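USER:
Before I trust my own judgement here, I would like a peer's view. Write it directly below this note and I will take it from there.

ASSISTANT:
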Amino acid sequence: MFDGKKSLDMGYYSVRVGEPDAEQELLGNKKPKTVTYGTKLHNYINKIEYEPIEFKLQIIPIKEKQWTIEMFSTVCEWLIRDEYKPFVSEDDPSKILYAISTGSTSWKGVMLYGVMEIEFVTNAYHAWTYPRVETISVQGSKTINIKNLKNVGNRIYSPVIEIEKKGGNGDITITNLSNNNKETKLTNINDKETFIMDNDYHLFKSDTSTNYYGEHFNKQWLYLVEGNNKLKIDGDCNLEFKLQFPIV
């Protein structure tokens, strides 16, 4: 399924990932960059470069087994886009990739019997879980559990949180009881104020003039550790945790 449309819905096409006997990438290439120190010439990792997953689709018409000019046009309009679109393979429908066509688009065959091939690159080194939103309403205090499903890399995951202050001006505190009681605190937030806290990119997004980076924030961005995270939330508010985890 590409961009929310299944191959059969687009005119009864058989879509296959890769060649008949090809390996499929579970993760993209990873290239550690190292430096050498000391007389023992040990290599130490300076940084790691991650390359996105790449794959090829082969498209074959099922009905009549023969291509038409209209079919070529339909496939190109569907799959050749100028932005990343969600792609789900029937081989593993539990995960999602975001892909854009790249490289060459070709057709192999004789007398309109054949296969169309399109190359794709994704937006990440890994696949993703389906996006989901955890909505929490707090009056006073509440403890919740969020499971970190990330299973690639360092396992730390930083969520995006949409926050709405309720019940008058005041503070909002999120304490991760599963991470040494690390406390993320926002102070003196106005009643009914709504803003987005992006803990991954260390950004606040708001339509108000409030300077969240100043005295209103203790500079402790929230992140989830591996496995279950028990979060204690203090302060009247509505929270939406926007979650989409990197996975193999």
Summary: The CA atoms of residues 76 and 209 lie 45 Å apart. The chain has one helix and 18 strands. The chain has a mean pLDDT of 89. Residues 69-79 form the longest helix (11 residues).
